[in-house]
Amino acid sequence: MHSGGSWWLLDFEVFGEVQVPLYDVCHFVRTCSDLRYGAGRRATAGRWIDRLMAGGAESEACRGTIAAVARQHALGPREVVGALAYYLIDVATQFHKRGGPRWYWEPHVLEVKRLAEVLGAGVDLERLL
User: Fold this and answer.
1) Is there a domain that residue 31 lies in?
2) pLDDT value, residue 44
3) Which bin fits 81, alpha (ψ -120 to 50), beta or left (φ > 0)?
4) Residue 127: C-alpha distances to residues 9, 81, 97 (Å)
5) 106 part of a folded domain
6) What letter does residue 3 receive in the DSSP assignment?
7) Cβ–Cβ under 8 Å, residues 41 and 47
């Protein structure tokens, strides 16, 4: 896709392959958010989970997209958090199992660790999602 004077590769590697509610929308939204962050555009935080919680136009767009698909599947807030956790854990597992250098898989593992910290701190993700 060509946008803003640059070519962008859309990652459909696992699109439709995993049959878990919200998996594809989480992958799409996270990839879009990561591209914005990686392109040096003003992102609110480094980890995707932090960007979802941060507020502002980007996080509202991400959360709104996830919420719209969740409504189509008749999922409540608790199920949305569960699907988000499943997605992050599954992606981290896939990247780690592929092997390769640490820089390749570590960001995904750290994202799962950050989610665990957020949930352990009692942050009400259900309210946000």
Assistant:
1) yes
2) 45
3) alpha
4) 33, 10, 33
5) yes
6) E
7) no
Structural domain includes residue 15: no
Q: Which two tokens stand for residue 18?
A: 């995993």
pLDDT in tens, 6-63: 666 666 665 566 678 899 899 889 988 777 665 555 444 578 899 899 888 888 999 9
Q: Please state the pTM of the whole predicted model.
A: 0.79
Residue with token string 């597992």: 93
One-letter amino acid of 72: Q
Inside any domain, residue 4:
no
Rounded to whole angstroms, the Cα distance separating 129 from 125 reads 6
The pLDDT of residue 43 is 45
Between 106 and 8, the higher pLDDT residue: 106
Residue 120: give the domain boundaries. 21-128
Q: What distance separates the 2 farthest-apart alpha carbons in the chain? A: 42
What's the per-residue H, E or C state across 55-83?
CCHHHHHHHHHHHHHHHHCCCCHHHHHHH
- The domain tally of the chain equals 1
